[in-house]
Amino acid sequence: MTTTTTAYLDSPIGGLRVHSDGTHVVAIDFDAEREEPDAPRDAVLDAAVSQLEEYFAGERTTFDLPLGPQKGSAFQRAVWKALCEIPYGQTVTYGELAAELQLGPFGARAVGSANASNPIPIVVPCHRVIGANGTLTGYAGGLGRKQTLLDLEQGPGLF
């Protein structure tokens, strides 16, 4: 098993814990609590925390971090890669993403399932995927967080 180090970050959507294997960001957890004292960070964690702080301050629209999720099937990883192609401030539906990946008639559900398993939310922007009717649907971090992230990117009141 790979050893990971973590860093805590206060954010507008609550406490986040960023995990690194020393080479890649491997996960971001919601509902994190600060652990005292903070453990030493590696360069990947420093970059991730800095970029997330810039994102939440409205100063960053793309992330430039090495990502290495420690779980996920080939299909899930393909969906997560496609999520990273959704531009800042834009949304796509589950069906649109499924069509892009050339999935069959039940592709939207498969995309939704892969989104729910995304271990690196925010950086891998699963919050940018919405329901077919243009409404907010499902988000592992809760719809309130999804709303906050979309408001940050698009301005309040869009959803």
Task: Write a short abstract of this structure.
The chain has 159 residues and is α+β, with helices and mostly antiparallel strands.
Task: Kindly describe this structure.
The protein folds into 2 domains: about 50 residues, Double Stranded RNA Binding Domain, CATH 3.30.160; about 80 residues, Orthogonal Bundle (Arc Repressor Mutant, subunit A). The chain is built from 5 helices and 5 strands, in the order βββααβααβα. Helices cover about 35% and strands about 10% of the residues. The protein is of the alpha+beta class and about 160 residues long. The model has no long low-confidence stretch (mean pLDDT about 90). α2 crosses α4 and α3 packs across α4. About 30% of the residues are buried. The chain is globular and about 50 Å long. The termini are far apart.
CATH-assigned homologous superfamily of the largest domain: Winged helix-like DNA-binding domain superfamily/Winged helix DNA-binding domain
Record field, number of beta strands: 5
- The percentage of residues in β strands lies in 5-15%
Our measurement of the CA-to-CA distance between the termini, rounded to an integer number of angstroms, reads 41 Å
Domain unit count: 2
Q: Give the helix proportion (percent range).
A: 25-40%
> What's the arrangement of strands in the largest beta sheet?
1-2-3
Any idea of the CATH class of the largest domain?
Mainly Alpha
Main sheet attributes: strand count, strand direction, barrel closure? 3 strands, antiparallel
Mean pLDDT: 90
Q: Rg to the nearest angstrom?
A: 15 Å
From the spread of the alpha carbons, the general shape counts as: globular
Q: In CATH terms, what is the architecture of the largest domain?
A: Orthogonal Bundle
CATH-defined fold name of the largest domain: Arc Repressor Mutant, subunit A
Which series of helices and strands comes N to C?
EEEHHEHHEH
Which stretches are low in confidence, meaning pLDDT under 50 for 5 or more residues running?
A: none
Please give the count of helices.
Answer: 5
Structural class: alpha+beta
